[in-house]
Design goal:
Layout (H helix, E strand, L loop, with lengths): L1 H11 L6 H10 L10 H24 L4 H22 L11 H22 L29 H6 L3 H6 L9 H5 L7
Length: 186
Amino acid sequence: MTLGEKLEQAVTERPDSRAPARVLQRLTGVPEHPGKQPLPVNWAMHFGQAALLGVLRSVMAQAELRGPAASAKFTVVRLTNDQILGNATGVGAPPRTWPRRERVVGVLHKAVYALTTGAVATPSPHGAAPAPDNATQPSVSAADPVSAPCPTARLTAGDPEVASSTTHDSSCSRLEEASEVPPEAL
């Protein structure tokens, strides 16, 4: 996003925004500097927000929210974050009050950030080692019928009479194992 902003600023001659520095100063209670804001404070807020929201994008990827559609949703999250912080501190203004060009540029930069963050946060299908065949199946021992994948096995493991009279399909093949557990072992 930063590289894209710098390229855009070189073409449009748009100055750097010092709003991130002002937001951080107001959030932390540090006195604001009149006029131009200190660049390190601006960068701290700019990169700090990017890093924190990058964690959220990683969580989204781990929850199977991946690809361009997820990045579009994350663009909205990124814009919303800026608006909440900017408006809550009195630094920002609602986007509907911005000049059209600034709105387009703002959304474009956030979309670039969202797409890039999504690409980084999403694990490569070729980079990860395949899981062993048994890694996806929970380990069920006769002493632990509660973790059995079959709901019937969990309900009947302590009562052999109920377990023996219960019908089950092949997905509940551990029912017999669980029903053989003596009640005192539970």
